[in-house]
């Protein structure tokens, strides 16, 4: 088959095409991205991180970070690992996922909330690509319209774009990343290029980034932009829960009022003379009256 | 006012409050301090400065980014979108429990529309980028004999293929069943039609017979016609078979107690106890008339003369 565990170059001719001395001179864009997560992440989010790692040959791994540490520690970690970018996953309550993207010594850094995650392992995503081939980066038109989106675009390009002539990369172009803005969020997709006339099939992963805040420095510094429409996931859940509760109470009250208002005066058509001959009936005085007249 | 305990903490703003009250800004009742609306930071200048500070100044081949509009909608995709919309509408019609909102125009809620939008955007990028590579003389396609590790493993791709196959088989089967059902329905309709037709024919014939009886019409030819047309003559073999079966198992009449004894059967002892001479003649005497004796025969002959 085509794919094997280790990189195998089948043809000697392919190797001889690229002289080894040529490679290092051309590798100019030396971006390295530190990809890691904090403790307490969901397995699904960890899979997403692993997927991104397989797609990014220029990543550096790092063990899980303790949550007690402050975020500024990440800057030192990047320096030690010789990385100029950081992609940090932060799980909260095993439920919500936040992602930090940062340009390391000088910033900017951005915090995103991540929704709608589908990992590459899902069976409906049928495409496949070379491990470490360089993706084309496709951006929506609105990435050129407002300053914060322009900044985000530059950050995405530097983090997700595989540097040219990176030693672990492949020399062919067989996939595209799309970043689209819809509903004030950034939707990420990864497509395989089946043919050069534009036939595609999706590889995955899928996720939606909801930008929360842009900072001037790396993991800190002055805030440059804040998302006015952002509601934190836990707050959103709480709102929904409270709304349901409030409705429950109001519904109950309404029902009670309605029941009282529509209560029938006569429940059953009774003949008042029916229990005339019963001992304790209230109609007895009436009978007496009838007799006396 | 100054005597109350809570006024101590508010003593700084006490004068202000009194002033406000005298102007009529404050109304009697519970007054709540309103929070100022939250101001969201949007430092446009800062953003632009930061962008220019860390932006890479490299040729396109190093970064491979492109901003573009989605590619024009291919006709088959448009057809697919229409199909999906119809499907959704049918679903909504058939299941009243589903939310009865049409989401066709909203790309956030309409999955198919949204995904096609992303697809088209990627398509536009591919279509615009490939010529750039060609210009730079960079190979884009992987040669057939270039083997390398893929992002998804072989086993995983096998799984995907199996899943696709399973889905396809399932779809085919459901289609077949649908077809069968339709056929059955058609057959039933045909059956009912023929039945109605026969009933009508019969009624017509009976009407005509009535007319003839009353003396209105005298033509009896329709009987022959209708017989020839309507009566389906059963085949001979079948008839014989029926006859034989009727003979063996009986046809019509009472079937209950047919084997139990009756008065006659219990009285009938058969041949038992009869005189030996008569026993042989029992059957014969019943069936044939005996030939008269010679004397009698002569007498009869004389009488005729």
UniProtKB/TrEMBL annotation, chain A:
The keyword Nucleus applies. GO terms for molecular function: rRNA binding. Residues 31-220 form the Brix domain. It comes from the Eukaryota. Keywords: Nucleus, Ribosome biogenesis. InterPro entries: Brix, BRX1. GO terms for biological process: ribosomal large subunit assembly; rRNA processing. It is found in: Nucleus, Nucleolus. GO terms for cellular component: nucleolus. The keyword Nucleus applies. Coiled coil: none annotated. PANTHER family: RIBOSOME BIOGENESIS PROTEIN BRIX (PTHR13634), RIBOSOME BIOGENESIS PROTEIN BRX1 HOMOLOG (PTHR13634:SF0). Belongs to the BRX1 family. This is Ribosome biogenesis protein BRX1 homolog. It comes from Aquatica leii.
From TrEMBL, chain B:
GO terms for cellular component: nuclear periphery; nucleolus; preribosome, large subunit precursor. Keywords: Coiled coil, Nucleus, Ribosome biogenesis. Residues 181-305 are annotated as: Disordered. It is found in: Nucleus, Nucleolus. Residues 198-221, 237-248 have a biased composition (Basic and acidic residues). InterPro entries: Ebp2 (IPR008610). GO terms for biological process: ribosomal large subunit biogenesis; rRNA processing. Belongs to the EBP2 family. Required for the processing of the 27S pre-rRNA. This is rRNA-processing protein EBP2.
């Amino acid at each position: 088959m085509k794919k094997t565990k280790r990189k195998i170059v089948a043809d000697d001719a392919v190797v001889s095409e690229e002289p080894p001395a040529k490679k290092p001179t051309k590798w100019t864009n030396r971006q390295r991205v530190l990809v890691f997560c904090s403790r307490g992440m969901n397995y699904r989010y960890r899979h997403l991180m692993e997927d991104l790692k397989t797609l990014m040959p220029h990543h550096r791994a790092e063990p899980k970070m303790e949550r007690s540490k402050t975020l500024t520690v990440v800057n030192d970690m990047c320096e030690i690992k010789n990385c100029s970018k950081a992609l940090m996953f932060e799980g909260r309550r095993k439920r919500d996922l936040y992602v930090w993207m940062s340009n390391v010594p000088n910033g900017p850094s951005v915090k995103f909330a991540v929704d709608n995650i589908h990992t590459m392992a899902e069976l409906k995503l049928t495409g496949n690509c070379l491990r470490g081939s360089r993706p084309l980066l496709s951006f929506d038109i609105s990435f050129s319209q407002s300053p914060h989106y322009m900044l985000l675009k530059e950050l995405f390009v530097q983090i997700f774009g595989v540097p040219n002539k990176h030693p672990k990369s492949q020399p062919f172009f067989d996939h595209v990343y799309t970043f689209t803005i819809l509903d004030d969020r950034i939707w990420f997709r990864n497509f395989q290029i089946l043919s050069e006339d534009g036939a595609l099939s999706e590889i995955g992963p899928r996720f939606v980034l909801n930008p929360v805040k842009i900072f001037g420095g790396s993991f800190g510094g002055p805030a440059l932009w804040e998302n006015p429409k952002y509601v934190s996931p836990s707050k959103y859940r709480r709102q929904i829960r409270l709304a349901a509760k409030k409705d429950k109470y109001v519904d109950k009250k309404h029902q009670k009022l309605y029941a009282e208002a529509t209560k029938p005066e006569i429940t059953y058509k009774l003949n008042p003379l029916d229990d005339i001959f019963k001992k304790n009936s209230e109609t007895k005085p009436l009978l007496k009256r009838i007799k006396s007249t | 006012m100054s005597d109350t305990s809570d006024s101590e903490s508010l003593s700084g703003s006490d004068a202000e409050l009194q002033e406000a009250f005298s102007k009529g800004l404050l109304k009697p009742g519970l007054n709540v301090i309103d929070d100022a609306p939250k101001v969201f930071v949007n430092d446009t200048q800062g953003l632009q400065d930061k962008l220019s500070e860390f932006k890479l100044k490299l040729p396109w081949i190093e970064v491979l980014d492109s901003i573009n509009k989605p590619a024009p909608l291919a006709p088959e995709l448009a057809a697919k979108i229409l199909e999906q919309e119809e499907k959704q509408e049918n679903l909504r019609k058939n299941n009243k429990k589903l939310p009865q909102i049409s989401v066709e125009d909203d790309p956030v809620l309409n999955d198919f529309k949204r995904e096609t939008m992303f697809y088209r955007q990627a398509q536009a990028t591919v279509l615009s980028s490939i010529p750039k590579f060609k210009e730079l003389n960079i190979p884009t396609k992987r040669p057939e004999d270039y083997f390398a590790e893929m992002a998804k493993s072989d086993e995983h791709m096998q799984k995907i293929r199996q899943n696709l196959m399973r889905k396809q088989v399932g779809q085919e089967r459901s289609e077949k069943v649908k077809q069968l059902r339709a056929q059955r329905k058609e057959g039933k309709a045909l059956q009912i039609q023929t039945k109605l037709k026969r009933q009508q024919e019969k009624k017509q014939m009976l009407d005509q017979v009535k007319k003839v009886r009353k003396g209105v019409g005298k033509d009896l030819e329709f009987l022959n016609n209708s017989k020839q047309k309507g009566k389906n003559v059963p085949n001979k073999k079948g008839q014989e078979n029926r006859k034989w079966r009727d003979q063996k198992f009986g046809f019509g009449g009472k079937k209950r107690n047919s084997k139990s004894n009756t008065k006659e059967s219990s009285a009938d002892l058969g041949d038992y106890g009869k005189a030996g001479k008569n026993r042989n003649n029992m059957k014969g005497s019943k069936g044939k008339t005996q030939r008269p004796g010679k004397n009698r025969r002569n007498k009869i002959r004389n009488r005729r003369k």
